[in-house]
Amino acid sequence: MDENIFDFDSQYQELLFEDNDNQGDLKTLKTNARENEDEYTNLNLFSIFFNCTGDSKANFNDSIFEKDLEILLNHQNFEIPNEFELFDIQFDENFENFDILIQMARADIQKLHLSSLDSFHKTFYNLRENVTKLLLILRCNYQLLTDNQLKLIRFALGTFDSMANFSLMYMSFCNDGNTSTSSNYHLLHGMLEWKWIWITMCYKLDYFKGQIGGDDAESFIEIKLLIYDLITLSISKFQKCNNANLIFTTPFICSCVREMWLLLYSFIQKLQDNQINFWDIVSNVIEELSKGKSLYENFASKKALFRSSNFMTCRNFDQFSLWIISGLTKLIGSEYPQIMNDRQSYELYENLIKNFLKTDQTEENMRVLLLMISEVLLNVWQPKADILMLLWENFQKKINSPFLIAGQNPNFLAVSANTAASFLEQIRNQQNTAVSKLNPNLTSYSIFVYALGKMVQRFSDDGQKVHIQRILGRIYTKFPAPKLKQLNEMGIHNILKLFITLALSTNLNDIDSKLCDTLLQIPLDKPNHQQLIMKGHISMLILYCENSLNISQYLTKLMTQINILMQQSSSSSTNILKVLSESLSLIVLRNMNENADVFENGEDLLIDSWIIKFLENSTTAEQDRLYETINKIIIKVQSVQHSSLVSNQTSLITQKLFNFLLPYARQNFGKVESIWMPEMIANLCLLSLEPNIILNDIPKFETLFRTFVEINSTNFEQSIKFITIILRSCHDVDKLDMQLIIQNWIRFSVLLSGSNYELKELTKNLIHLPEFTTLCNTSLTKPEEFLNSKEPLCTFISDIGKKYADSNNQEKFQLVEKVHTYFSTFEKWSLPILQQNSTQKSTASQSQTNSVDEHIMRIYTFIAITFLHCAELIFIRTKSSCFFNVAISHFILPSTVMMGQSPVRSMILSIHKVWPLLIEGTSRLNYKNDQHINKVLSDIIIKWAPFLKLSSNSKFVAKPFISITNFKNLDLIEFFWMKLSKNFLALQPGRKVNSHCYMILNVIEEVMHVVECEEKRMIAIWRSIMQQIIEMAMLFEEIEPAQKTCMNLIERYIKNKNFDTSTTMNEHLMKNLKNITNSTSLSYHSALYFKFLTKLSKHRVTIVNSLLSHLITQIEKVEQLRGSGRDVKLRNLYDQLQSQCR
């Protein structure tokens, strides 16, 4: 319905008190009605009825409130039609025999009463319609009515509680309106219409008799009785509604009852000139009901109307009273804003709350009360604190209570949030919630605190500081020091919530001193209270910072208490320090993006020894969070310094950061696992570079940088991250120790995979520096390729070797010096790893697995690659500490290996992998002419070969041997096999073999599989091993495995596809066969020799035939030496061989 229709209300009030003859205004009213609402164009006297729109919901005033146009036009100024119909009888306007009509009306009313016990009937509306029409006609002719007729009418109307189904009347609303067929509906709405018409009729009669304004005036009595009836209707609804639903339910059983209240209020407001007050009447009615009496008993003329058997009793009348007054206040306040200044309504409300609090109410009732009154207090009246102070007197007595409903789990209540910030935000969010949106599960105390905060905020907005101070005074006086010491955890929570709410609701400047002093009186000595109390303090400090207030005084007092507890016991202060740690950033870094007024409000007081105390006694996650916060503080200090806004406070906070953090960082860097610690320390070091602050007793940046690089020997990723941040953030490159940085980059690259993320980041920041690019050309010309290589260190070493080869003598000298500087710390950091691994000889050292310790493998790989690419560069003959000598003496040929002691398996596996590179790299020095290098190379071959039998799998064992055999340098191959042959294949005295002979023979067999098609490599190998192989094949017994292996090798040699065509292979074999048959050997091993040649003749008889002439010559020399003439035995062996060869 259009909002203009509401204008009828004021127009109606004007017309209601005019004389009947004022027809002009009446016509104006009718005209306006038609203009504003087409559906009422045909309104006349007989279309004025309540038309119900349904139940009156709790949120009726949140939606558009639609007045019933019919009832608004329901006044005495209608014209009576010339002809009309009542009770199925036609009448004209001159009919004056009202007795018959009154009797007929009484009969219809009786029918409705009786029918309400029955069922539904379509004529119920007609019965109601007849009565209403008659009353309207009578009201137009009130001057003609006799006293007896008036009594008959009033008796016929009766009372609401005289209805047979009165207790069910709260269900008599109907969404179908007047089309409903319910007798209860039409009886109730008929009663509303009739009572309203009767009151207006009585008013006209009183006016006519000159009795307006007196307590005995009939209209005044009827108004009180109608209010009584309407309240009893609300009692019927209250009785059927449980506590939980009261806050969602209005006291009005339907929209028509709600409109009736509005009509009554509007009507009485007009009568206030005659000292009649709506709220006084309501108060009087409630008082009578509280005594269990019916108001009808107070009037002799009305007693006959009362039926005590149907009188409504109420289960909790105090609660009901507040419920209905709250509903009425909201209803009337939504229509008549002037109620905000209505003293009588507020006083009535206050008195009802006093009565309510006189008895000990349950928590459930208190929650309902607070939710009901909060909306009224905050949205209807002007701000007043009297009622809230009444409630405060009640709550302060129970401040230690959790305010739980009986049977409710205490865990249901969130006693405190996880952090001080969330605790504050929780309260802030609650205060920002509209009263109609409050959670109904909040405790009564929480709702009270909410309402008090809102009220204080209204006072503050209106500039009424006096009222705020009165409220605070009433609160502070309830908390003397002894009472604060008796608070339990719940009591502390309740006080904190109250104080923080007050701080949020007004200008903190106006209340901070006394409020904070009261909070600081709550003792911190009980461990189970500490965390909660500290959350309160921190919340207040955050509010101070948000309001740009100085926290020095507050924080000094608080830190004094904390320091005392820390001195007494570290465990007793753990909870306190945890809260401080969580809140440090919220206080110190409140304006991260602003530099103005930074650190000017006493924030430096929070940088104290408690930080170290907490770090030493906290979990890894808690440490990490604090490291992150401190790092942000350091960055903020740097930002302030760059902005030239450095103050004494900024210098002070910087000095404190160094004083407290440096000793801790030195002691714990690398020992504490943290993703933030390296960044924190790096930024602390960079802070020492800032020129705008003068610090006392703080080392220079260069010293700090070296200290933290060298101090961490185990946690590589933290060190890498530290150096990376320094490289990325330091703008003064000259301050950087590039020698130290490259030294450590080499260390990290050796010990960590090239794919390591932190190492990649370090490399990315390093390759742009001139000192690095002068050594590594690839990083300069192809940076992306360098970064994406599997192992950038290998490229780096290779480039150094190339640079050395291309340099002149002067440049070579400088490069040697520089590289040895970079490698100078190698022994320092790698040897402990090797020694640590060597002490772990356990089951792992005997395992047959090929797994290897990653660090050991990478150390040996680095040495081998450096030998391969930079052998000439790393060897300085006159310097025992050169990298080559260090690597040989401590890693390749340590004393244990030289003495033949087996190294740990990881070391053997590493050598197994890099042995060929070590040999090839060493060979690039002058091993042929330099006895020292020759000895080193020989030892690398001889000392390590026996240890390389890591598996029974001969192919695996032979891998490095095959790699060496594939060298391009044939001289080196021959040198290698010669050393193996002389040391492991040569026969020992008594025709015994070396214990490692069998391994070498198996390796040779595997090598032959690979190189037998390559003549030059075959010759290089056999030139070194031929004599020893033939000797073992000849001198060993046939049962000896080595003899069989040697024969197989010789057989493979002479059957090689290149043997027949290769003069060198033939000559080499013949030469070795002849060397064995010298006169001395032949005289001692003649039988074995001829036996060997007999076997050989079976494979290659031509070879043996070629030896016959040489043999006869050697036999003759033997005979000559012996001097005994012809040696029959030798001659017979020769003849047998000769015969075999034919």
Automatic annotation (TrEMBL):
Domain of life: Eukaryota
Start and end residues of each MMS22-like C-terminal domain: 758-1140
GO annotation, cellular component aspect: nuclear replication fork
Main location: nucleus
Gene Ontology BP annotations: chromatin organization; double-strand break repair via homologous recombination; replication fork processing
Location in the cell: Chromosome; Nucleus
The keyword Glycoprotein appears for this protein: no
Protein MMS22-like N-terminal domain residues: 223-643
Ranges in coiled-coil conformation: none
Keywords for the protein's UniProt record, in alphabetical order: Chromatin regulator, Chromosome, DNA damage, DNA repair, Nucleus
Family, similarity comment: Belongs to the MMS22 family. MMS22L subfamily.
Protein name: Protein MMS22-like
